């Protein structure tokens, strides 16, 4: 069984869309909703937080560019919890990491990781 998640990146939600979640996601709450409120404006923060918290997700406020790296991976901590709904406890998660290209590496080293798949538009 797979985890299903929606990641909502927004500058605010004018309503909590309770009727939509009630119809399509409740009572099982199989799809987790993670919300990222972008910007310094906090007018609709309560609705954005409600959406995440009532759908087994996580709310994050990202007010500056410096907050992105620190906060964007918080969803992994939530998804890495045991899948209690299905009583599956044999899944092992590892932390995601940010990769950087080290200056001075040769072109041939980088080509070994080349992706040859066709992009889907």
UniProtKB/TrEMBL annotation:
Entry's InterPro entries?
Ca_channel_alpha-2/delta, vWFA_dom_sf
**One of the record's GO molecular function terms:** voltage-gated calcium channel activity
Q: Which domain of life is it from?
A: Eukaryota
Give a Gene Ontology cellular component term annotated to this protein.
voltage-gated calcium channel complex
Give the protein's recorded name: Voltage-dependent calcium channel subunit alpha-2/delta-4
Species whose genome carries this gene: Liparis tanakae
